[in-house]
Amino acid sequence: MYHDGSHGTVVTIGTKRVHVKMDRAAFEHNDGEVANFLPNDLEPGHVGTPRNSDRMKDAFTAMKLATGSDLVDVAVDAGVITTEQGEQMKAAWERHLQN
Question: Cα separation of 45 and 54, whole Å?
């Protein structure tokens, strides 16, 4: 339960347990730790829930994108810029937020 939602790489397979290096542990301070699991406790593939810090980052990015989009919409509605210019500005703002 301590590592529920973690992502890791199998390091070695013992006689009864699998040794997994935590690449993206549920809690950041456990990154790099090697934990031992029973084989049936593991799920293959990229499984788990995102960290809270990743979820917060995504929420702030969505908020910034929405704010920029709203500003552009106001400028288009006021006739300050064209719709095409507005779409270009939204695309540039999205690229900026991704970097």
Answer: 19
